[in-house]
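Might I ask for a little of your time on a matter of protein folding? Here, with my thanks, is the record as I have it:
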Amino acid sequence: MINKPLTAKPTVSLAGLSIPKWIIFSLLTIILYGLMGVVAKFASNTISPYLVQIISSFGMVPLLLMLIMKNKAKKPARARLNAGIIFSVLVGILSVVASVSQFLAYSKGGPASIVVPVISLASLVTILMARIVFRDKLNIFQLIGIVLSIFAIFMFNSGGGDLPKISGPWWKSIFSSWMIFSLLGLFAAGTAQFFIKSATNHVSSDLVTVVVLFTTLVLTVVLVFTQSFSWNMSLKDLIACLVVGILGSAAFLTQSIAYSSGMASLVAPLCSLFPVVTVVVSAIFLGEQLTPVIILAVFISSIAGVTISIEKKQLRKQ
């Protein structure tokens, strides 16, 4: 592995404070993904998840066109461009694989209160791969924050800890078809996040977003012509799905910027704390009840977010 020269990390000046860029854009990602989760609830209650995936993909088009127009004149070196595009295409493919795997797990009888928590632990895969490939060096506070964030993510997605009873011995569910698809979704989502960091090491976050969104659209069109769907939906559902796509594409852009300036081992678990926003906004505007477990998860997430963001200052030669 080639050792890169030590340089100052990008920062953003906010209210007189110099805050690392990856923290700012990770927080923006949490907000955008959190709001996307709230809007998605409007549509997913009445139409199939497959249809939500398809319609929301077309909500990505406005940002895709804006980024293409913005980056017309920017052309990185050929080798870096090719590597960046390959990694970005892999991100798009793996993201779709993760979504489809989740839908297939449901269709095979997998309970949502188990499938979702399993896939939500994808950041564990990202952290492991980043430690092996990028050799991310973490301090004790960040390690504690990662552990707390993984625990909080599982609490958020386990439906308040009320997991359904599985018929037969629990270990048999590990070899069931729905669990295999759940684990496939876990691996695909975690690897996709790792490749975001790999892509932003070669090209700009804007270009990564363009390639990923375009790849997602192409695969969505393929999905439309290979699967049968009921296209019946209300105008409200259509608008909600498009808003999901708009928020999701914007969140992916801010997430890519966070990866471009921060370590994958920190960005992945921090961005995965977006359920904090979803549950709080849902409780305020949708009247959803906050269970004691969810309240505890919000508290743990807050601590995790703070500890992950603690960086040891290093002396650098100017």
Q: What stands out?
A: The CA atoms of residues 13 and 28 lie 15 Å apart. The radius of gyration is 20 Å.
